[in-house]
């Protein structure tokens, strides 16, 4: 692949022949800024991204979505090699895989992604941008950068977020990392005992990855982990992590990270009293915080206690002609939110008034599986609808059943059926409406995108599922399982 | 897992306390018969399946969907081990994987699936069935089996299909197999040189699997292979099979399978004249033929030249009160067709008149990738809409770009980017409607089910894609790529 730019150099990609004023300057060229820019440009407007970092595309390709997907793939690979090595097609895993090598592999590939982002943005999308330059916002119509003052009709703040630092002593110690520093290669040793602090969607993939690499891995969280999840589905996820060796301390606040200059342990409070978990590395998975300090100082942008920029339904901040998009405006800090909010801001800027609505969306994260869920949990559904509920589960009870089975899960179905996944649909009996869908396995994510779209635009019923044309073996078995029950007037669990 | 039945014994699961006449006897307990039965039972009717084989669920779990998914998983695993062995997390593949071992693994697991089918059908679905007994159809209201004559209001023929035997000499030779005999362990040696005859959705996964196992693999077809596919997408699929070592002879009719008692080669006609491809095994992937001989003889059921049972829009045959479903009624011989047609027959039988319509559906098959496609090919779209077309491709040209990337493809994205997949959306410029979607990669199948449902129930436009909430990194990048262009009034390729 030919390189299209040198990311270590300041880069200015501006069409100097275009003398129109900018409709918008996007401060930040991550997902929100880049997609907002592409949309604005596509509508015929003129924009400029000013990105102080060395690439377009933001955290996703720098240290977030991309590495955790790569690490997930290696996690599953290692799980299968450890389990099946020496049989059928799997050789014995006869060496200890090195985290440092994997990080280096990631960093090599990242260059290619940066380069593609550059090339696509410049050549295919025709957007204008400046990289490796710190912008200075003069006022709501002026941004200074690289010694030039650019006038603009609007400013779109797209500054993203950064990892939260929990309020415990010892964060400064060597060996305390998070998902952003991990991939920059800050570790000069191979961790052997890892404590992951946190309980959300970042905890699960990294704890699983560390465990798969052979590290003794312990998760510590002040409250229950994976709080948004359906409890039965969560139980499957946690059981499967425990089965691989991950230890959990839920409801055990971390009190301090211990050590002289480098980490030696984490002190936690358990119901039985204080306890020290010895470790050589601590991974913080304690959420993200919007990068709102600078615009607050520069423009007086209003933020809430968490640093979230306050916007109206058109994504306007309190300062006229200044919009905010992406992680800056708070949860969900997901790619679709970043990109779609960028698009909505651009429409509003170019005179197509569009309300920002998050809409229905599915949640996803990785463990040793892809976990995807949408709509209500069983607990929430019971709260709302009592006994007016019907459930479809696979496996229906006994986990040793060789289902679910589809790509990637089927290897487990045949060789370790308890590990082949879990899925559950929650349906309202009286209306036959699908209320919630929960999936632990492989390959269901693509489908959940469209299921959320269908559910957002109308009802999805068990009878709709029965009428669909499944592609069997499908990662989620919802369609065909629904069909087995859809003939019933009074729906019975399956 | 506890065993629930002995598949070597005749089994009669009839509720002898129920004295109602059967609403339907299903001849055959495969996907069509079992789902038709479940639906009829769910509606409150009474049914009986008579299956001469040893299990419910038909070919899918016996020798079709299930094994080819398992073999696909092993194909990808072997591809990665051969390519990356000795680096990062992959040990060197230091032994030759044995086909016979894999078949045995499959056969062990198959028992579990049969058992689950039995248990689910009996306990959860409450359907009545007889296994390991040959039915004799006396007339359109009477079936004799196991020495008893059962009266029924209707008969549903659900007899499935069997592999076509092409019209060439040498089919009797030892070493000539198909996907049904392969898994019964008919080979008492490890094949080293395999010729696959055929060019459809069965050719690709098995040729890829044999190649991944280390066999010298050659595909022979009398016409172009994968004829239904978009040509550009097909080119990617074939290039990727060639890259792994599969050889293709398209438009080269096989003339004879050669050998004394066992296969030694296949004679083909090429544009340069006749040629012999030496081999020790021939795999026939030459389509399926409906099992319509018996009902034609027993009841005078009308069939066409291909043996397809002729049905009206309510799935009725020419004989009153006799329906036909599943592979018996012809293409598409897919699971959704079998199951949904069973459901439709049951509705009609119980007085809920329902027209059979295949509806919109996506195609799927395996190679070294999951291949999924829906709607128009570029060739067909050009024929219909000329230049009124816009295309979104990933990669847009240069295959060395590290995209697409999502679960499973991302390992290739980082280590062998040319191999990370290909995807293409075809959109009508003037109406902005999505006409065709084509995907070579991993994990898109689940989504294509719902995309076909959305497209069947109305339009899907590029603007709809732009409004969806993607789960990034998603296996198909359609949503976010569409969003990069959706701002345009006049759509430009991406």
UniProtKB/TrEMBL annotation, chains A, B:
Every Pyridine nucleotide-disulphide oxidoreductase dimerisation domain range: 367-467
One Pfam family hit: Pyr_redox_2
Domain FAD/NAD(P)-binding residues, every copy: 23-342
GO molecular function list: oxidoreductase activity
SUPFAM superfamilies: FAD/NAD(P)-binding domain (SSF51905), FAD/NAD-linked reductases, dimerisation (C-terminal) domain (SSF55424)
The organism's place on the tree of life at top rank: Bacteria
Protein name per the record: FAD-dependent pyridine nucleotide-disulfide oxidoreductase
Keywords: FAD, Flavoprotein
Cofactor: FAD
